[in-house]
Amino acid sequence: MKFHFKKLLQNDGWLENVVVETKVNGVIIAIEENVSEAESSNYLAIPGFQNAHSHAFQYAMAGIAENHSAGESDFWSWREAMYKLALALDPDQLEAIATMLYAEMLRHGYTHVAEFHYLHHEKNGKPFDNLAEMGSRLISAAKTAGIGITLVPIFYQKGGFDKSPEPNQKRFISNSVEGYQKLFEASERACRHYEHANIAIGIHSLRGVEPEAVKEVAENFSKDIPFHIHISEQLKEVADCEAFLGKRPVEWMLENIDLSDRFHFVHATHLNEGEIAGLAEKGVNVVLCPTTEGNLGDGIFPLIEFQNHSGNWSIGTDSHVSLNPFEELRLLDYGQRLISHKRDSFTGENGGSSAVSAIRQTTIAGRKAMNNFSQDYFSVDQSFNACVISAEHPLIQTSSRENLLNTIVYSSDETMQRGAIFSGNWKIINPNHEFTQNFVKVLKDLKHR
To answer: 108 catalytic, yes or no?
Structure first.
């Protein structure tokens, strides 16, 4: 199969009038530039975005947690609304929600998702006969939508530091490392039913798992796959960790776990200088979810300081209040500009293009979250996965090579986005596609909106 593009972004810049040829399985066999038959193409291609943090079921509550009662409204009050939804969903409903979500991710240019999955058990808290029933439904949703998925079955054991699980957490809980291992192995088997699914290790948080169990999983589970964990998202979490462990969360991880670039710390919002330097030195990747972090009032990650230490980061959509990767990047950048009063958040003192730096970071570190260590945006023998942009918008038509990617990242809207190509298949999704009816029915049946 052949794909034509007016321009295609490679690591060192734009190629002009490009033909990408793939095998039937979507693997690239040739990339040719300056091909006359591609001159009439109305498409630009950049690397498919990697959504490095997703809670699929939370898409069903996007936009409904904005009516605030008198008094304090914060992450912890939002969490109660999330628990209510989590307790209500059956496997069919989860699959319908996830299918719609993943199709929408493709429409916005994501080609892969790391699904941080902790909705494991039946509504009464008992395990399904198939321990990975709910994870299997997420894999099925990814297969139906046509997106790559890294399933991250989450070890969730506690209700907080030195606290038993709460009743409304009963669908999440594995009581022991042995219990989590059985869940993990069942999830690994489930991934074999979809060629574009793979597995990663996940700890919910230091407040959600006993410290010794965190050590055991990090030391004794496979060390050649990614390891994901929520960490230091909330100030209360940091304070509670200091009171219980005598250390801040990231400080404890640095001192007790053999960290490397297979580790992906989600949010890591509240860090001190030593933690920033330590994570960067170990090569740990931080997964930032700016629209969710902003929506929940988490705080602003110290990105400039982290990048000054050559720290690596990716993006995710987390609770899915937004599904646009460019919105994630803009909010991340603008938050830094607002607190630093400077405009070089992504480039630092070395200068250069903000968009080039952003795309490089979120592509390379995002792929690591999926256990893909490829550095090349597009190359022969690599699956063809792209975010597709219209070449017709006046701002894009008139942009120089130097300003084109900046225009896409900082000035694009949904009218310029044409979806994605995943594994050599077009995924230009109509918003009124067949998944919508199932999704709408689920939301109406849940009666929570």
So the answer is: no
